[in-house]
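[audit] Reproducing an earlier prediction to check determinism. Same input, same settings, fresh worker. If the tokens differ from the archived copy the diff job will pick it up downstream; this log only records the rerun itself.
[audit] input (255 residues):
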Amino acid sequence: MGLQHYIAERKKSKDLLVMAHVVCGYPSFAENLQELEIMAEAGVDLVELQFPFSEPSADGPLFVHANEQSLKAGTTVDQCFEFMKLISERFDFKVLMMGYYNTAFKMGEARFVQRIKESGGVGYILPDLPVEESGNLHRLSAEAGIEPIILMTPTSTDRRLAQLGAASRGMVYVVARKGVTGSKTSMGDDVVALIARCRQHTDLPMGVGFGISCKADMDFLRGHADLAIVGTAALKIWQESGAEGLRRFFAELMA
């Protein structure tokens, strides 16, 4: 089942889906598994597994720290793929690889796509790879049935959005504001206008991320977006309150 069809099927019973995020190996793979169990219980629909990288340019301070600590602990790409396989077999939600192009470049694009497929992933998010340089990777992905998730941002011109829309598969990741992950986003007319602009250039489902942190954000996005993407807020809760705090967070978020 392709990602677009999966999202459409899930939306028959839910008006807004949730995509969550964990950094592989931070604080540990055992804690990652605990987090994912809580997310699965709450009914999360998609999860980004972030493969740690030394220069995570799209990420804010909390995720930068998580990437650094995971790498210091010795997390490897092979471990990340093994973990992806474990959770894709264990849980009902779909799994995306999130990371940076260096991972694909070092192992070779063909092998990168094949490893995602073998590990049960349905796609990947590489925010530092321009679409102009992604032709071969996207071709290999299409052949394997793996979908590249493209980011559309507030700074994109309409011409650029048209290019991004043409290259998109599965779903689109709408970046709700300028900057990196982690800061609170003010949900208002600007976000609605951005989603509307993006919808002019693709009919794929829209996930909105960067700063989604509470039920009020979720309620705001209903009727505008197809998915709410929750990352930093969940990691912060885990650091502060552990499993019980994360359970309460997702229960309230998805009530």
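[audit] rerun output stored. Observation attached for the diff report: The first strand starts at residue 17 and ends at 23.
[audit] end
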